Amino acid sequence: MNRAGHADAKFFFGHEVERTPAFLKHTLFVIGYHTQEEIDQQLDLPRPVEHIFFGANDSYRPTTSADYTAWESVIQTYLDRGFWCSLDIPFEYVEEFNDGGLCERDRFIPIIKVAIPYIKLWNYNTCVKIDDRDFAATNPGVWVHELRDLMPRDRFTGWSDYSEDEVIPVTSKVDRAEVLDSQYPDGDDYWRTT
Predict the structure, then answer these.
(1) Where are the domains of the chain?
(2) Which pTM value belongs to this model?
(3) Which of 11, 115, 183, 184 has the smallest set of CB atoms within 10 Å of its CB?
(4) What SS3 state is found at 157?
């Protein structure tokens, strides 16, 4: 994903701005797959975190069953600790994703990403069909929604709403204290005051 200031980012903090069940929660955004140890290092930083958003910046791209298992295992760890966890799942990964058990967890928010470029060019009669992979293969039928009904103003997040994120510099364990001191010299930071 081409996003200003995120070229080398692995993690960033912010409020969840998309209208999900985690809307406005203090969030750690995780770009790509990271181990529990790497994520715990970010959670040790002086910021409250209620929600962890996995697969940020379109980075959920497992290629093997071991990859799916690794993602599921690390997300399960944070669900077990009481965090809300989201995963941004590109449409092409939906079928394989459901082989795991994350959807059974109450604090797990799967976000199925369906890209519709140039959405304003579709006419008033445009419909979105939630289908099956084949006729009567896994679903009891199909659901059809008028596109305009899926786009009410109160569900919209404009691109400018994503501008408040704080990218975490890539650091080693050795220089973490130095990074914290340089970012928060007086101990007072945005995350403690909101």
Answers:
(1) 11-115+164-193, 116-158
(2) 0.83
(3) 115
(4) coil
- Among residues 83, 70, 76, 61, the alpha carbon closest in space to that of 35 is found at 70
Closest of 51, 100, 95, 102 to residue 75, by C-alpha: 102
The strand ranges marked E within 91-138 are: 108-113, 127-130
The upper half-sphere exposure of residue 154, i.e. CA atoms within 13 Å in the direction of its Cβ, equals 0
Q: Cβ atoms within 10 A of the Cβ of 23, count? A: 12
Which residues, listed in sequence order, are joined to residue 113 by a DSSP beta bridge? 90
Partners of 127 in the β-ladder: 146
Look at strands 127-130 and 166-167 and give their pairing: unpaired
pLDDT in tens, 78-116: 999 999 999 999 999 998 888 889 999 999 999 999 999
CA distance 50 to 191: 12
Q: Which residues in 32-70 are b (16+ Cβ under 10 Å) and which e?
A: ebbeeeebebbeebebebebbbbbbbebbebeeeeebee
How far are the Cα atoms of 26, 58, 66, 153 from residue 100, in angstroms, in the given order?
27, 20, 12, 34
Q: How far, in Å, CA of 117 to CA of 11, rounded?
A: 27
